[in-house]
Amino acid sequence: MFGAIFGAGTMAGAVFSHLFVLGINVQYYDAESHLINDKGSLFISALVTLLCCGIIIVQQRNYLFNFIKR
Hints:
By secondary structure, the chain is mostly helical. It is built from three helices and two strands, in the order H-E-E-H-H. The protein has a two-stranded antiparallel sheet with strand order 1-2.
C-alpha cells in the first residue's frame, strides 16, 4: 500500500516533468554518441505505472483509512 503511494508520487513527478520540462519524446545519446529518440516510451511507462499505483490505492483504501484512524 505504502509502496503504491510512494510510486504514485514518484510517477506523478515524472509525468509532470515530461509534460512541462522534458517533453513527451525524450532524446538522449547512447554510449557510442548516437542520438536516440525514445518515441514517448518513458512517458507511457510512467503513465501506466501511475495508473497501476492508483488502482492499488483505490483497492486498498479501507486499509489506508483504518491506518489513518489509529
